[in-house]
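In the previous chapter we treated chains in isolation. Here, by contrast, the input contains two separate entities that must be folded as one system, with a combined length of 378 residues.
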Amino acid sequence: MSMSAERDDELQDELLRRVVDELRRPVRLDPTLDLRVLRAIREPAPARPARPWLRPAWVAAALAAGVMIAVGLQSRDRPSSSPTTVASPAATPFAESTRPVYLRLDAPASSRVSVVGDFNDWDPSATPLSPTGDRGVWTVELRLKPGRYHYTFLIDGRRWAGDPSEPRAPESDFGAPVSVLTVS
Amino acid sequence: MRLLGLLLLFLLPGSLAGQDRRLAERLDSSTAAAVQRVVDSASRGGLPTEPLVQKALEGSTLGAPGDRIESAVIALHGQLARAREALGGAADEAELTAAAGALRAGLPSAALRRLQALRSGRPLVVPIAVLTDLVSEGVPPEEATRSVLDLARNGRPDDDFVALRREVQTRRRGPGGPLDRPPLQPAPDPPPDR
């Protein structure tokens, strides 16, 4: 070890000794300290000026914004008018409250089939069916909450077809065959 | 507070702050405005509005003229109001929609009230929907009501109601049954190719 290093160690030891001695000295408190502390606790706290960001109007606005954001996020669960296939269970925000529903249609010699209904804003481009291995059979899986839904199939973009496996809606208002689906 | 009001107006969804975006996009302006008035009336009366919007969108997609769409939405509004009268304030949107369909099918409000009493707080959507479906399949309303009320009286689960409907449907649509009909029916007015 060099002379310089030994000198540094001695200085550090001396400093450490002084610190320890200071900490070991008994602390003398003002005998009136306890009394002053207790009095201060009993006194009412002075009114602090309201911070601008804690004013009730701003708090209400923040709460309202939070509610609106939540409503906005929830409304995304409603099918949009954009051309998308009905979401798979993993992609659905409320997947735990929905049920899988399989729709099937025999439509031989058709090039495309879609389904429109209460569950997709009656958008012909929203929910296409896929051809299966069986000739002329088209299927799609939906995820729906319990309820009663109206729907119909659109074949090749020009022919409506009710679902032969479900009841016909008594409230078909517009001429096309509309079926009803009950999800339990 | 003025700032708060402006903020709320800005953030409110379109259906509350003005016209439902879907109506404006899918209907002509006159029909959209007429339907929106019905939707607003339903909202003020505590009735569900989404079934009304869906009815209008259905009419739009199926190529119905505006006045027919408006009539259908007004009729549905009336059925929802009657459904609310029958089931009371505790009924949710799905139950009211199902009940409106039942009333439309010709079932009496009293049948819905009896069903509600027998279910004692359990969801009503499936029993009401099955009751409506049975009538739609051609079962006389009195017979359909009796069958569904029997299931409700015995505390049977929803799946049993669906099973009843399947059984009736199979029987009536089977070979020689009263509803043995071709599965596909072309619409009289094909929609435009979108």
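Chain A touches chain B through 48 residues (CB under 8 Å). The longest strand of chain A covers residues 147-155. Compare these points with the single-chain example from earlier in the chapter.
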